[in-house]
Amino acid sequence: MKNVMVIAILLFFTSCEDTKSNKPVTIPVAAATQPVNEKVATFAEGCFWHSEIVFQSLVGVRDAVSGYAGGTVANPDYETVCSGSTGHAEAVQVHYDSTKISYETLVNAFFASQDPTQLNGQGNDIGTQYRSAAFYNNEKEKQVIEAAIKKLTDEKKYKDKIVTQVVPFTNFYPAEAYHQEYIANHPDNPYVAHVSIPDFERFRKEFKGNFKN
Questions:
Q1: Domain 35-196 belongs to what architecture?
Q2: Tens digit of pLDDT for each residue in 17-59?
Q3: Residue 121, strand partner residues
Q4: Within 10 A of 209 (CB to CB), how many other CB atoms are there?
Q5: DSSP state of 177
Q6: pTM of this prediction?
Q7: Hey, which end of the chain has fewer CB within 10 Å, N or C?
Q8: Residue 98 pLDDT more than 60?
Q9: Domain ranges of the chain
């Protein structure tokens, strides 16, 4: 019982922001030649460690890069983004082969892997940098995002209103090296072990997508 209480207390106070590391990591190298049909999509849904493994698990996605999007300051770093002063959200840029996975599927995965009704946060990760946002590159992508929101609303999937921002893409800055592939490199981190991985396992179980082996 004591162990259960200790874990509960740790989870209450643990967030993506609380856990930092300067441990050098080996970042997987993307394919030297990008597929002819490769496109890029940008999403924010709380801690980017979580977003990374969600999208990387899907067939057709070559890479998902953690970074910062939607802000007003050039070349932000993690500390300033966490302060909320730059206007950025923790986000991922998803590099995908449009002949193997559709933008619509990515949008559906985006909504299925978060609580889009929580304003400026996900779980214990609170702040504008953890807001839910879908950044569209063109009118067609905007329509796909809005259609997904309407479908979830019509189905009464959530008790509360979806507050995901639907905004045009303006900028993206890759996060520091130690944030890339963070979950793969730090599986024993308390936040990763008790929040990120269980959340991902729920997503993988519930989402009707084509997953990599």
A1: 2-Layer Sandwich (3.30)
A2: 755 544 433 333 344 467 788 999 999 999 999 999 999 999 9
A3: 126
A4: 18
A5: G
A6: 0.87
A7: C
A8: yes
A9: 35-196
